Structure formats: C-alpha cells, structure tokens
Amino acid sequence: MRFNSGLLCLSTVVALTVAPLRGSAGGPAPPSPVLQDPPQVVSHDGRLRTKIVVDRRLVDVGGRRLWALTYNGRYMPATLRLRPGDRMELTMENRLNAPTNLHVHGMHVSPSGHADNIFVRINPHQTFHYSYRFTRNLKPGTYWYHSHADPGSAPQVAGGMSGVIVVDGLTDHLPRSLRGITEHVIALKDFQVQGDSVKTQNLKISAPTTRTVNGQLNPTIRIRPGEYQLWRLANVSANIYYHVHLRGQRFHVIAHDADPVDRIWTADSLLLAAGTRFDVLVQGGPPGTTTRLETLRYSTGPAGNTFPQATLATLVSAGTPVRPVRLATAFAPVEDLSHAKIAARHTIVFSENAAGTEYYINGRQFDMNRVDIRSKLNTVEEWVVRNDSNEEHSFHVHTNRFQLMSVNGRPHHGHGRQDTASIAPKGQIVIRIRFTDFTGRTVLHCHILNHEDKGMMAVLEIVK
C-alpha cells in the first residue's frame, strides 16, 4: 500500500464517524477470522489463460464442511483479473452429472461462437474452450462469472458456481495518492443446507439462508484510521437481495455494474439486487473503532420474500493513522443518451402466475429457438420495462449495458450505465440502450435465477 499526505482540491468533503459494535449481551463482539480475498488469475502480455474444472467437492464454507458445486475445488473460486483490450482463453471441463456453461456477467463481448454464448451446452464429462476478445474501451470495474445453464442456473449458482472478474483501470480515475489503494473483493454469496450439502434442488428463496463474504462467516476486515480502501461489492448469489449498510459510515460509489460514475456519490446503504455490483471507497474510523457490515431487512413485495437482517463482516480500525485524503466528486467521463436519436421502442412486461410457478416476459415463457426482440447494431433504443407482478424483479441485459432514464415515472440520474436494475412490484422503468460492436443472439431476463429458470427470459438478437 502507498499513502500520500497531500490534500486535493475539493468539490465536497464528507466527514465520517463510526459506531462501536457490541455483542448481543452488550459486551465486545466475538473474534472472527480475517477476510481472505480469493486468489487471482491475472492476464499477462494481453492474454489470460486458465482452466476451470467444474466438480462436486467437500469444501470448507461458512465455517462448515459441506458438499458444494465448485470451480477448481473452491466454493469461492479465483478472481479473474484482466485489462481492456485483453484476450481470455478459458477451458471448462465439466465433471458434473448435468450440463453446464459459463456466462461472463456484464461484460461487453461477443455473445456468439466460443465467447459469451449462453446457448452453449457443455454436457457431463465434456470440455469446451472459450475464447474472448475484449474491446479496448471495455469499462473497468467489477464483473462476475457463473453458470447460465437454463433451466439449471439457479441450482448451479446456489450450489457454489460463481466467481468475480476484475477489469483494471478504475483506480486510474482516483487521486494519485490513492493509486496504490488496498482493494478487497466483497463477494456476497449465500447457501442453504440440506444434510451434509449445500442445497441445490427445490430451492425456496425464503428458506433460512447463511450469508457469507468470500465464503466466510463474518470475517474481520482490517483498516487503518483515516485510510481509504476500495471494496468490490458483488452480489454473486442465485436469488437473494442484499441491502448493504456499514454502521456509522457512508459508501463512496465510484462504479455501478462495472461502469465508472461521472461523479462520486455517497449512500448510507446500497441495494444489491441479484446480479448487481458496486465499487465503493470506505474510510477507516478513529483508532480502536469496530463496526458492522450488514445486510438490512428487505422485502421484495407481497408476493415476494422478506430477507432478514444479517451481519456480513466486521470492520476494525487499528494501526498507524493515515492523513485523510479529500475526494473531489468529479470522476470519469460518461456518455449520456438523454438526447440520442431513438431508432425503436419496445415494451417488456414481467409477469407470473398466481402460484409463482411460472414466469413470463410479454406473456410468454423462454424459448431459445424464438427471437423475441430484434435490434439493429449502432442504434439506440428505448425500452419500457413493466412489472405486472406483486414482487420485485431484477432486470438484466447481456452484451450491452443501459442507461436508466426513469423509475415509476420519475426521472433518474444514475451517474452512468448499468446492466441490472430492480423493478418494484407493479412498477416500471424506462431505459435507453446503445448496441455497439457485436451482433448475434443474446438474452434479457430476471436475475432472480429461480424466476429465469421458470421462464422469465427472452431472446434478443442484434443484427446489422
């Protein structure tokens, strides 16, 4: 880590205080293990080469020994780290007794052939070679990878098949004194238990669920007083929402869904719907301060689920204080589609049956052989996405991210683009999306994977 005592010119300065953490009896909280960041596989000379073996293994997860679905024998697999313009050569060997595949969530890359093609089916005991060529304007930030093997996405991701991707370059927008900032992957990953195994079948979203950070139960995150750290918050779970809150602190958001913001914005809490990521700066409190990173109680509506409050990690501020750095709010350039010429408009309606056993987009369930929306390359479209159900849904589009224009009729300025947005019960969002670089068949869907697997997905074809 490198630190610089110089102060920067400021548009805004935020002072932070931290509340002490106490145990249930009012005394100090019990000790917890130190946060372990996942190992990394890093690109060299413009290329990342790796192999992923998919297997069911007995692993340590959340302080228990359980059978789980693993990548290379790990419940929390390696972080794949690369730069814009790189290539990635990835071999996937399937040792499961069910088909699988791989999706690089949020990445602007070809949806065809051996790239981010979710229509690929890797059968049991087969091997497939993925090859990705990323553009030089690929946005820096936090992405993730996971199974997209419809209709088995939910059981495979819930079983453990998800990991993080980092595209470098985000810290280039930070002050020089923070270019060597300490980073932590904060992968929010949860599991249910059935006997001696992580549960994969007949998943009930509302069932008791253990929430972990990087597969650890309430790990300790160490920070120096006054120090800024970069936390890569990523909801890499199958179905559950996280309403993340750091007691006494504010998150300084520098990227949303791997899209750097135009201006740093702050929040007491952040809603990470299924599939969502935020890159945030967190500052250490006074010496000896301990505080809790938690997910708050959250309801997705009368037909949805209520997720209870849970502690995720413990932040401990100790060591030699660091002279605070003042953060200017201006951050990175962002293209604004507010005045773009609109080539086409579509209405997309999410709905479900009364029993919650079938889910629809525009009244139809997913059919991989049917094209539901056809869009032209190098154009901008405006979509109205409406939720006719009584529960929240997590709307996600592959290949190209979108600009969220309004929420329930109110104009929205999100400081950049995103690939996932939550739609309230009986709610509506309006988005604008520019189709660039790649043609081919891809998908849009609800990222609550139980819903996706039961029909809430549609085929989008991008044509010249």
UniProtKB/TrEMBL annotation:
Residue intervals of the Plastocyanin-like domain: 66-168, 204-283, 356-461
InterPro entries: Cu-oxidase-like_N (IPR011707), Cu-oxidase_2nd (IPR001117), Cu-oxidase_C (IPR011706), Cu-oxidase_fam (IPR045087), Cu_oxidase_Cu_BS (IPR002355), Cupredoxin (IPR008972)
Signal peptide: 1-25
Superkingdom per UniProt: Bacteria
Keywords: Metal-binding, Oxidoreductase, Signal
Protein known as: Multicopper oxidase
The species this protein was found in: Actinoallomurus vinaceus
Organism ancestry: Bacteria, Bacillati, Actinomycetota, Actinomycetes, Streptosporangiales
